[in-house]
Amino acid sequence: MAGLQYGIIGCGMMGQEHLRNIALLQDASVVAIYEPDAGMRALSAEAVPTAKMVGSIEELLAVEAVNCLLIASPNYLHLEQLEKIAAIRPLPVLVEKPLFTDPADAPRLAALRAAYPAPIWVAMEYRYMPPVARMIEQADEATGGIRMLTIREHRFPFLEKVGDWNRFNRNTGGTLVEKCCHFFDLMRHILKSNPVRVMASGGQSVNHVDEVYDGNRSDIWDNAYVIVDFASGARAMLELCMFAEGARYQEEISAVGPAGKIECLVPGPGRFWPEHLGEPPVAQVIVSPRDPKGPHVVEIPVDPQLLEAGDHNGSTFYQHQRFQKAVKGTQPVEVALDDGWWAVAMGLAAQKSAETGQAVSFPLPFSPKAS
């Protein structure tokens, strides 16, 4: 087939990052953009002056040159937009996480999965961060089989987005869906197993507590602990804090088994690193065998051009490279609809556990069933 010619649905903060990374790809271009917000539409037109600006998804799908799609709209729109695409012109699509936000949407997802004839790739950038990918590659050998997996993200508060949509659980699915579906996806991906039970505690302690929009007070959470038991017998834990941007590393992931421990340390976006501290930190992977003892530290530098193009440690570019191959049929989809579905189901279960104070066990009405 010809090179990838993207139609973009939603070009806000994350959509802009996608534009910058698509521009770095070989044999790919953006030919049409649907972005309702005037400010973001102007930025998109400046970034890709050759792209056609359209006023609806229908208009975008009518652009004959478009042969694949990217959805980077607000969370609560993703499923509805996928259904519209399926009804009109079901092209290969890369859809940003989370795949959906409402537990009641599970039957619609099942119908979409059964009928959609083209690849659907759910954007899970964290899998493709170079230090995370290196850790995953070496994890089984370093640990002798993972029994405990811990993911810590200590980061900055939610950024301002168009219309402040990300300040409310009803729009995002809740922080444990919006933000943490990345980490639940990593858990399943690393452990190669599905969850059986989730226990969580979380809430809104510091961020956005005094913010009011159109008479409604922000209710988005800023911290949580989540423990997940897996069918394999492994356990995983997430520690999220969104008022800890003073930390040297943003993500710290560790996996431990009978043979030893492996961990990776990932810095946050370079644009947030204070100039007075000098050069920003470089990602690391650390292998710590039990015998002989002695941690082995390897730095994992990332191409500065990729760091400049986005806030995800180069992963957005690497994800697009793989999506490109999947569209061309030279490799399978690596993050399929069921992967995105599981990640949200785990997040919804964690939100429910934190709200009720009770563990939540799978299967659940909104978790994926065998296709």
UniProtKB/TrEMBL annotation:
SUPFAM superfamilies, A to Z: Glyceraldehyde-3-phosphate dehydrogenase-like, C-terminal domain, NAD(P)-binding Rossmann-fold domains
A Pfam family matched in the record: GFO_IDH_MocA_C
Indicate the segments forming the Gfo/Idh/MocA-like oxidoreductase N-terminal domain, all copies.
5-118
Superkingdom assignment:
Bacteria
Q: What is this protein called?
A: Gfo/Idh/MocA family oxidoreductase
Describe the location of the Gfo/Idh/MocA-like oxidoreductase C-terminal domain by residue ranges. 144-361
InterPro entries, from UniProt? Gfo-Idh-MocA_inositol_DH (IPR050424), Gfo/Idh/MocA-like_OxRdtase_C (IPR004104), Gfo/Idh/MocA-like_OxRdtase_N (IPR000683), NAD(P)-bd_dom_sf (IPR036291)
